[in-house]
Specification:
Distance between the termini: 119 Å
Length: 318
């Protein structure tokens, strides 16, 4: 075959082969879409007023006042609902002085609106007894109960807060300043009139606790794991104690004779100030008090407070 004709045949065959060959499908390889799981914010973990394991702590022999343990006991913290111990003390002092009785009824004023959960949800014009309000205050940490008791005690919220601060000074609580009777933060939901956070230290709260335990009737409230009160609508309101060391098996402190050690006093929590507690208990008739302020979480608070109380009871009963 002539060379020219052979070349022509090759060219035609190549063109035919190219057209007949199947085309490759190109698959675009895209990275899989990963949807990020955004965790809900639990508030600040480490701030000046919220630390791990705590901002400050102290434990003492309640009978002698001897300090068994302390760490940063003079550091400023936000007490949150631990504030309610001062509210309860002033009410118990009023009752002892005959100013009013536990069975007396307290009618809610519009100031009761300056609160939120935990609360009994009482409305202006409704009423509850002083006794039921104290139970709600110290068991379920009812914020509206604190305001009602404050107004009952002093005639107005401002007058009661002034009385709280005066009592703190008298007790030597030199680094404590109260702005409200329940410990809620300022401007929450823009309906609170106070201008700042309540402030205190572990040592100052110890001074308060040593005064509170002089009123043995306080333990009828603080040692109750559950309670039922009559709310503003005349209906039973069941509640559970916020003190998990008192209530939950994993935090229980049991004495060698099988009795429960813990019988009070008060827990507290706000995001800005973390978790706090004033804890007390008895062994062999001897009482210890522990204060832990500004823990990064409630579990950390419970763990350290229960250990400190166990150690303190062991030390004073040795």
């Amino acid at each position: 075959m002539p060379r020219v004709l052979l070349s022509a045949v090759c060219i035609v065959w190549a063109l035919f082969a190219c057209q007949a060959a199947p085309k490759k499908t190109v698959v675009s390889k895209r990275a899989p879409v990963v949807r990020k799981q955004v965790a809900k914010s639990a508030g600040p973990v480490q701030t000046a007023h919220r630390r791990s394991p705590y901002v400050g702590a102290i434990s003492v022999n309640a009978e002698t006042g001897e300090v068994i343990f302390e760490e940063n006991a003079d550091a400023e913290a936000y007490p949150a609902s631990v504030t309610k111990l001062m509210t309860a003390l002033l009410v118990l002092e009023d009752v002892k002085a005959g100013k009013y009785g536990l069975a007396d009824r307290v009618t809610a004023t519009p100031e009761a609106y300056y609160s939120e959960s935990s609360w009994v949800g009482i409305k202006a014009g409704q009423s509850m007894t002083v006794d039921d309000l104290l139970m709600a205050l110290l068991v379920m940490s009812a914020n509206d109960a604190a305001i009602m008791l404050g107004v009952k005690s002093a005639g107005s919220l401002d007058a009661f807060v002034a009385r709280m601060n005066a009592r703190a000074r008298k007790l030597g609580m030199t680094k404590t300043c109260y702005y409200n009777p329940n410990g809620l933060p300022p401007n929450s939901r823009k309906r609170y009139p106070w201008k700042s956070f309540n402030r205190t230290t572990a040592r100052d709260q110890l001074k308060l606790a040593l005064q509170v335990v002089k009123y043995p009737e306080i333990f009828r409230y603080t040692a109750s794991k559950t309670a039922t009160v009559t709310d503003g609508n005349g209906k039973p309101l069941k509640m559970m104690n916020h003190n998990r060391i008192l209530r939950m098996d994993k935090f229980h402190i049991v004495n060698p004779d099988g009795t429960e050690a813990v019988d009070g006093l008060k827990t507290g929590y706000i995001s800005a100030g973390g978790s706090s507690i004033v804890l007390t208990g008895k062994r062999g008739g001897k009482r210890a008090i522990v204060v832990v302020l500004g823990s990064a979480s409630s579990d950390i608070r419970e763990r350290h407070a229960s250990h400190l109380l166990t150690d303190a009871l062991g030390a004073i009963c040795w």
